From TrEMBL:
Signal peptide boundaries: 1-20
GO biological process: carbohydrate metabolic process; proteasome-mediated ubiquitin-dependent protein catabolic process
Organism of origin: Karstenula rhodostoma CBS 690.94
Biased composition regions of type Basic and acidic residues, renumbered to the chain: 654-666
Region (Disordered): 574-710
GO molecular function: hydrolase activity, hydrolyzing O-glycosyl compounds
Protein name: Glycoside hydrolase family 1 protein
SMART domains with a match to the protein in the record: WD40
Top-level lineage group: Eukaryota
Keyword set, alphabetical order: Hydrolase, Repeat, Signal, WD repeat
Lineage start: Eukaryota, Fungi, Dikarya, Ascomycota, Pezizomycotina
Placement of WD repeats on the sequence: 967-1008, 1009-1052, 1228-1263
GO CC terms: GID complex
Pfam families: Glyco_hydro_1 (PF00232), LisH_WDR26 (PF23627), WD40 (PF00400)
């Protein structure tokens, strides 16, 4: 015990020492243990490019983990060929239909020239299957099909497909049995090189050795494509795929290996299949979302033209090696994708559009036949979007093709787009940019150019004479140096073939037979009549296959191959009892009752041939190489046979909805619903006002007849005037309004007492026709019997066929039918008809009656020649796999929702108000009254709708005009301040090198950040208010990212040699854009680790010195202020859209409105301007403040951004109304010296703060 007591004084003194340290305010310190190091991590940041050195099985498994589980087919080993029949069944002219014959008897004795190569073709991913077998690495399409929602129309994959990998011997034996002399497959790059480079897969080499050996054994000649869009996924994760120059060497090494091994047996090599896919496929890959984008290129035109650039260089490098070094025995080229265009008229605009269509398709890759460079059209239009070729690269490209290969499927008419090509080409935000040329599958007289293919391939029409014209045009006009030309793909998807439940009806593919017969006729005529040196033709495809974005939906095959697997389906490794025309591949179980073609009867159980079952309940059917969002309707104006860009799936109005024209986007201040005249919420017939039948003193069906089946009561004589207003008009509006309010009985009583009715019988019948979806009767009632009666339309009745069904009305007297309803002044009849038929089309799609919907689109909507962009959107909706997806993509609630009510509301605006009062007329009048009140209320500062009981007026005393707090956190000029988005904090920056953050309940200081070495010019809050970024002047020239909660500096970005002036956060919160006066980093995007992601610049070699910048709230626009120019960028694609010049002023600050439409720009010479972002149109100017020598920042403020506020060099705060008048509201004495910035509280419109040269921050509220 004594020993323990002896230690007590020691512990007491130790305690006193610790207490003293605590009292003295010392901070605990922590040291890093030896042997450890620290780093910061951001899991949401994009990976950076790297050089792969790990080619292990673990690394390969990591790549496959990006794809997920892969299905295995029923065949997992090579199958020996089974005997083929000596003859195949074919149409029998005696029972009862013969073969499709030629239309050119003069060709009966004409033969193909000696040496002409012909056969069929396909590609590895589309037919091989065996997705993960024998060491194959994943391709980009393995990931797209498995991981990306809606990338493939029917959710199928290339996991199994035709199992050609295992059944190639059977397939080649069948070709030999059919007398087919040649086959053009593609080899799989990720099968040879699972990582795109590195070690070669031994199993792949053995497999393709065996394939080539089988070609030799069967006597079938191979023509091999080295790359058909199955880029190794590893190259995307490593450096970004075809948007990085490294892929040129990796492709070269792959091609060099394959050619060196097999050239002795291959006559023709195609390096690349259709490099034009960089446009309509590659540029829409979801880089950075479903797989990494290590080089920061995530799609759009930048990806499109980088992909095309490196594809062309990769081909050229291989071709040069093949001839100059390897001395190959065969010929080498790449396959172009293109279609023939003919000018729609002799106008110069149509001729120019024709040439632009050629330039942006095959001309883009025409360098081998010219000087090696891109066409001037592309260079003039694209500017810095088009990578520049060096002279060495041009020399490499020139002459790199031994013959011209063209995949020519169809033809189009080219026409000038609205506004002309020049206006489009100078505006990167134009929807037609960069092609700026229209095309259509309609002839100048409005008739389709030929029979249509399957509806999901809406760009494909059979136009045989076009191929002949195209072959001549290529070899005599576009590229006269071409020695010979080969049609390397042509084929046709039989309409609705994927929907048949038995094989028998699919065997009668008359349109496909017609297509091949007449295309071959035209190729013969081209050779013998036009003397074009056509040396080959390859039909697409050997059998049904995976058709990229359309999956298994479309059938191009000369053979049926029905084994398709869905991305979320269990591997089909259990044999099915269903028979197959390829007996080595058992089918998946048959689906229940797939939907049949609208114009064919369902097959019966007595079909002589067993049905090849489909793997899902979705109709099966397409080829071609577009994603499910792509659709080239015959009315699409900006097209080259396939769309230049998919429809965003696609291009909609800026408000994100697909409304009808004339739809008022402005909502009422009153809490109303979208009800029709005399309506309740039900979309069906209206019970109460359905009885109020009579109506209009200005028409023969005049006031008075009947209500509820009885005579309208006699009305005592009243003045026709009601306090200066027309009594009838007021009464009818009241009847409508009572019905809108739900007081139908009161509306009926007013009808009875007044003798006035809301509408006549024709209007009532028209309303019921629209609300009941009787579109034939609705059109007839609206326009009369004879209007637009030019062949009828597609009936909604499922029992009806495709005949003329828009005939006589079934319920309205002939006298009413003949006349139609009078239209309002300026109404567009075609537009109204378009609205009706659009609703009809959408309802057919909702029913999944795709055949009739397509007929409506082609025969009824397109001939109206209305908004072609909207037609493009409607066309793309054919690709929706379900009614729910249709509603989502169209922003449309279906036939049972409010869509018919909305349609009626829109139509009513174009009908004479004397017959049909515009919908909710009283609401519209009240809204105008309130808008007038608000506009004339100088101090209006509330988001609440004004009361109708009294005239509205906001009192001046309720407006923030008094300083209630003076914050003294700085000791020098305060340059900027900003509230957090939630309004709970206020941050200010100062010349004194500090940032002060206040909480806004008591405005107590939370943090004083003092790590900057120079004055702090600007700050910006992150979207979630957890961070701020601050910008620093000379000499530090840096930006810092801070944690708001702790006040610690998270990142210093110090790459600048000149001051940082401004910064803004991307909406995602994962990147910042910093503006500076730096010549190298003037306007750049950085991640939160301080890594440069992207540099914005007008030209490659130009620098930008940024005064201010802002990103719109919706994340669509970046506005950058230079000294006397404004640059506007599409922030998502990073493309510069427009540039506005201001020669006589210096620009100092910019703020973007909350609706992302307008920018508020401050400039010297005492000017502030409100400007439309996308057009540069000045909307309003604000005058009074002084700004000559210093940076003064203006901003929006108040409820609904009703005000514009700015500091001034005279020490005042100026406030204006943000309306058409731009009236000055107040000029408040605020600070000594300049007022540099003002910030309005985001959640309390009665409060704002100002910052001045006196080192003070003042908080303002009402007196």
């Amino acid at each position: 015990m004594a020993h323990r007591l002896a230690l007590l004084p020691f512990f007491c003194s130790l305690s006193a020492l610790v207490t003293a340290q605590s009292v003295n305010g010392s901070t605990p310190t922590f040291t890093l243990p030896s042997g450890y190091r620290t780093a910061s991590f951001n899991a949401s940041a994009q990976p950076t490019a790297f050089n792969r050195t790990d080619f292990s099985e673990n690394a390969l498994n990591e790549l496959w983990n990006l794809v997920g589980p892969v299905a295995t087919g029923p065949v997992t080993t090579t199958v020996e060929a089974t005997p083929e029949p000596s003859a195949y069944s074919q149409p029998d002219a005696n029972h009862f239909h013969g073969l499709v014959g030629s239309n050119h008897p003069e060709l009966n004795d004409v033969k193909l020239p000696k040496g002409f190569k012909w056969g069929v073709s396909s590609s590895s991913y589309q037919i091989e299957g065996a997705a993960k077998d024998e060491g194959k690495g994943p391709s980009i399409w393995d990931l797209l099909a498995h991981r990306v929602p809606n990338q493939v129309l029917d959710n199928s994959t290339g996991d199994v497909v035709a199992s050609h990998y295992w059944l190639y011997k059977q397939d080649l034996a069948r070709l030999r049995g059919l007398g087919m002399p040649a086959f053009s497959p593609s080899f799989s790059w990720p099968r040879f090189l699972p990582f795109g480079h590195g070690p070669v897969n031994e199993a792949a080499v053995k497999h393709y050795d065996d394939v080539i050996s089988e070609f030799v054994a069967t006597g079938i000649r191979p023509a091999v494509t080295l790359f058909h869009w199955d880029t190794p996924l590893a190259l995307f994760t490593e450096y970004g795929g075809w948007t990085d120059r490294r892929i040129v060497d990796d492709f070269f090494n792959y091609a060099k290996f394959v050619i060196s091994r097999y050239d002795a047996y291959v006559d023709e090599w195609f390096t690349i299949n259709e490099p034009q896919y960089c446009n309509w496929q590659y540029s829409y890959y979801p880089a950075g979302k479903y797989y990494p984008a290590p080089n920061g290129v995530t799609g759009g035109d930048k990806a499109r033209f980088l992909c095309g650039h490196y594809t062309l260089l990769a081909h050229a490098k291989v071709a040069k090696w093949y001839h100059d070094e390897f001395k190959g025995r065969g010929r080498i080229t790449f396959k172009n994708s293109g279609n023939y265009y003919e000018a729609n008229s002799t106008s110069a605009g149509d001729e120019e559009s024709r040439q632009r269509n050629f330039d942006f398709s095959i001309g883009w890759f025409g360098g081998p036949w010219t000087d090696g460079d891109y066409p001037d059209t592309l260079k003039d239009t694209l500017g810095d979007l088009l990578p520049e070729l060096t002279q060495d690269e041009k020399d490499l490209i020139k002459g790199s093709c031994d013959f011209f290969a063209i995949d020519a499927y169809s033809s189009f008419m080219a026409y000038e787009i609205d506004g002309g090509a020049e206006a489009c080409a100078s505006n990167r935000s134009h929807p037609g940019f960069p092609e700026c040329a229209g095309s259509t599958s309609l002839s100048p007289i409005g008739f389709p150019l030929g029979p249509a293919a399957d509806p999901t391939m809406s760009w494909l029409y059979s136009a045989p004479s076009g191929i002949r014209k195209f072959l001549k045009h290529i070899t005599t006009e576009l590229f006269p140096s071409v020695p010979d030309i080969v049609v390397t793909e042509f084929g046709f998807s039989e309409p609705f073939e994927g929907q048949w439940t038995s094989i028998a009806p699919a065997l009668w593919d008359l349109r496909r037979a017609d297509y091949f017969q007449h295309y071959l006729d035209q190729i013969l005529l081209s050779i013998h009549e036009d003397k074009v040196n056509v040396t080959g033709a390859w039909g697409w495809a050997i059998f049904d296959n995976f058709e990229w974005g359309q999956g298994s939906q479309v059938r191009f095959g000369l053979h049926a191959a029905p084994a398709f697997v869905l991305a979320d389906e269990i591997a089909p490794n259990v044999p099915s009892p269903n028979a197959s025309d390829r007996p080595t591949i058992p089918h998946s179980p048959a689906p229940p009752s797939p939907e049949l073609s609208a114009h064919e009867p369902p097959s019966t159980d007595n079909d002589p041939v067993a049905a090849p079952a489909a793997p899902s309940t979705r109709p099966l059917a397409p080829k071609r190489r577009r994603g499910s969002q792509d659709s080239d309707d015959l009315s699409d104006p900006i097209e080259r046979g396939r769309p230049s860009r998919p429809i965003k799936k696609r291009r909609r109005r800026t408000d994100g909805t697909m409304r009808l024209d004339s739809d008022a986007s402005k909502r009422s201040h009153s809490p109303t619903q979208s009800y029709t005249n005399g309506s309740t919420r039900s979309p069906g017939p209206r019970s109460a006002l359905g009885k109020i039948a009579n109506g209009d003193s200005h028409r023969p069906e005049s006031n008075g007849s009947y209500t509820s089946g009885s005579s309208v009561a006699s009305v005592k004589a009243l003045s026709s005037s009601f306090f200066g207003h027309d009594r009838e008009e007021v009464t009818r509006i009241l009847i409508q309004s009572l019905s809108d309010l739900g007081y139908s009985d009161a509306a009926g009583a007013l009808v009875k007492e007044s003798g006035y009715t809301l509408e006549g019988p024709t209007v009532a019948a028209f309303r019921n026709a629209v609300l009941n979806g009787d579109w034939a009767e609705a059109e007839e009632l609206l326009f009369g019997t004879n209007s637009y009666h030019n062949g009828g339309g597609i009936h909604l009745d499922s029992a009806a066929g495709y005949g003329k069904t828009w005939t006589q009305s079934r319920s309205i007297a002939q006298s009413h039918r003949a006349e139609g309803l009078p239209l309002a002044e300026g109404a567009n009849r075609d537009e109204m008809l378009f609205w009706l038929k659009q609703q009809k089309y959408l309802e057919l799609l909702e029913r999944r009656d795709l055949g009739k919907a397509l007929m409506v689109l082609r025969q009824e909507l397109t001939p109206l020649h209305q908004d072609v962009g909207r037609l493009h959107i409607l066309s793309s909706l054919m690709m929706c796999p379900s009614a729910d997806d249709l509603k989502l993509q169209a922003v449309w609630d279906g036939a049972d929702g409010e869509s018919r009510t909305l349609l009626l509301s829109e139509l009513s605006k174009s009908i004479s108000p004397s017959v049909m009062i515009p919908e909710h007329r009283l609401v519209g009048l009240l809204d105008e009254v309130k808008d007038g009140w608000i506009s004339n209320c100088l101090y209006h500062n509330t988001a609440d709708s004004p009361s109708l009981y009294i005239d509205h007026n906001c009192e001046r005393d309720d407006f923030p005009m008094k300083t209630v707090l003076e914050l003294k956190g700085h000791h020098d000029e305060v340059w900027y301040l900003k509230y957090s988005h939630d309004g709970t904090k206020l941050a200010s920056t100062s010349k004194d090198k500090t940032i002060v953050i206040y909480e806004t309940t008591t405005y107590k200081v939370l943090h004083q950040l003092d790590e900057h070495d120079s004055g702090v010019t600007h700050l910006a809050w992150s979207p979630d208010d957890t961070k701020i970024i601050t910008c620093c002047a000379q000499q530090e020239n840096s930006a810092r990212i801070w944690d708001v909660k702790t006040g610690t500096c998270l990142r210093l970005i110090s790459d600048f040699t000149y001051p940082c002036t401004t910064a803004a956060w991307a909406p995602s919160g994962t990147h910042v854009v910093i503006g500076s006066q730096d010549t190298k980093y003037g306007c750049c995007m950085w991640d939160l680790d301080g890594h440069l992601v992207h540099a914005f610049a007008p030209h490659h070699n130009d620098s930008v010195r940024v005064n201010d910048l802002a990103i719109s709230a919706d994340g669509s626009r970046l506005v950058v202020l230079l000294e006397n120019k404004i640059h506007v960028y599409d922030f998502r694609s990073r493309e510069k859209l427009c540039e506005w010049h201001f020669d006589d002023v210096k620009l100092t600050s910019v703020t973007i409105s909350s609706d992302s439409r307008h920018m508020l720009v401050s400039m010297n010479k005492n000017r502030i301007r409100l400007i439309e972002i996308d057009t540069g149109r000045e909307v309003q100017g604000y005058e009074g403040q002084i700004q000559e020598n210093f940076i003064i920042r203006s901003t929006f403020g108040g409820a609904d951004e009703n005000f514009v506020v700015s500091g001034s060099e005279d020490g005042r705060v100026y406030i204006w109304r943000n309306n058409v008048n731009g009236l000055l509201v107040e000029a408040l004495d605020a600070h000594e010296g300049c007022v540099n910035a003002v910030a309005w509280h985001p959640s309390d419109p009665r409060c704002f703060a100002s910052a001045g040269d006196d080192g003070r921050v003042r908080v303002w509220r009402p007196r």
